[in-house]
Design brief:
It is a single chain. By secondary structure, this protein is an alpha+beta fold. The protein has one domain (6-140): Aminopeptidase. Helices cover 32% and strands 22% of the residues. Strands 1-2-3-4-5 form a 5-stranded mixed beta sheet, with helices on both faces. A hairpin with an 8-residue loop joins β3 and β4 (85-93). The longest helix is centred in the last third of the chain and has 15 residues, at 102-116.
């Protein structure tokens, strides 16, 4: 019998396994090798998950002590609703674990936590070419039709 998947908040001891998932997520979006995120950005991101003053949160999917997926989300204010919104920023599962409901379970846990925090909505972005993920997203949310514009500023 297969052990069920547990969705839980990330813990400090998860860093080595989380980092493997994080590196996989970033590589998927072309941030690896010479374009990889600086290590200090990764360490700062990790530290924010454990800072009570930060609105950033991390959940992981675990089975038998192995992390199979991650999701990061941020609560923030909005100008058009009196409550907060929840931005699901990062979602990733190991390639070997895809198609087993882990992504859906991570999203649904974010939904539960956003509802408990009285958020008006959960939303996220993905690249239009991410057809595998979009097949799931079309089942668990609606495509708002908005396009994203951005301008990177010097740090």
């Amino acid at each position: 019998m297969t052990t069920p998947i547990t969705i839980r908040p990330a813990q400090p001891a998860d860093f080595p396994q989380w980092k493997l998932l994080w590196d996989g997520y970033n590589a998927f979006y072309g941030r690896s090798g010479p374009t990889a995120l600086p290590d200090e950005t990764t360490r700062l991101t990790w530290a924010r998950f454990f800072d009570d003053y930060e609105p950033m949160h991390a959940l992981v999917a675990e089975r038998d002590g192995q992390l199979l997926g991650l999701v990061h989300y941020i609560f923030h204010r909005s100008t058009n609703v009196p409550t907060s919104n929840c931005y699901l920023q990062d979602l990733f599962t190991l390639e070997s674990a895809r198609g087993r409901g882990i992504g859906r379970a991570l999203i649904e846990e974010v939904y539960r936590r956003a509802d408990a925090a009285h958020c008006a909505r959960v939303y996220w972005l993905t690249h239009e070419s991410n057809t595998t993920a979009r097949a799931l997203y079309d089942k668990v949310a609606e495509n708002s039709g908005f396009l994203v514009y951005r301008k990177n500023l010097p740090l």
